[in-house]
Amino acid sequence: MESAVKSIAVLTSGGDAPGMNAAIRAVVRTALSKNIKVKGILRGFAGLLEEEFVELDSKSVSDIIQRGGTILYTARCPEFVKSEVQDQGAEIFKKHGIDGLVVIGGDGSFKGAAAMAKRGVNTVAIPGTIDLDIACTEYSIGFDSAVNTAMETIDKVRDTSTSHERCSIIEVMGRNAGYIALWCGIANGSEEILIPERDHNEERIIKTIIEKRNSGKKHYIIVNAEGIGNSEEMAKRIEEATGMQTRATIIGHAQRGGSPTTIDRVYASIMGAKAVDLLSQGASNRIVAYEKGEFIDYDIEEALAMKKDIDQYMYELSKKLAR
Ligand code: ADP
Ligand code: F6P
Asked: Separation of 128 CA from ligand 1 center, angstroms?
């Protein structure tokens, strides 16, 4: 079947995520296999406005599947929320004579993608964020790598925490979402998980630490989500109230870097290929998603209107297993 598009461009936007390079590689090589020409737009929507277009061929994406970050660079472009700036973005895009656009990013980037689609640019988006906070999909590029990096770091902190018989508060990323914290809490066997989606009671935590220490427990690990934050202050309060030495570790941007896991390489590759399949079938304003073991796609507005909550079973499990 003849492709509905003859040329496409790809950009990465918002926070980078391990696996974005695998997605870019899949976009490029899938497109080339269909005789579709490909350009990269550097630095997300900011680069679009600056007309930072680069040619991409098969060789441009060699040796990147194993690398974290994004070869196209990424940026936040706050002015892209303005309708007149979106008009300008679409005009620039059309001026370059390209038929389709692939946007790899999170919820914010999808709004930019929808704005482009609304202005007649055939656009397909791919979920790329370590936060896993995109409602329409159970998988987003980078989460698996980030959660593994955080898990390995927490294991290391736990060693020293045990040796010193301390309480450790380890803060993980996730913006307003607690997925990284929840998964690490279970994977690291932490005593507490603090996430913005659920309330916590510091008085109760302090009481539990005292009780557990009196019954011989050597360490107390608290995984704290960025959305709760204030780990340093919390550490001071806990140390003062329990008498147990308490340290805060904020893992930070290390979670966004490093070589992507197998899952991130493979799923990102499938999503990249799927985005090109959709564009070549004439689709626009779609988001590639993963649900119940299948790669599917949604209308962007429909996807943006969806809501999701953390898995209550997992949350309760984390508490049960921490006893
Ligand atoms: P993410 O895509 O990871 O959620 P951001 O929320 O920072 O990250 O959004 C990335 C970029 O997407 C922004 O810098 C901006 O260029 C674009 N964007 C965000 N919100 C909107 C919006 N409401 N309309 C158009 N573009 C947007
Ligand atoms: O969205 C990914 C993310 O790493 C969040 O977890 C975090 O809140 C934010 O980006 C950090 O952004 P920046 O790189 O601008 O500090």
From this structure: 12
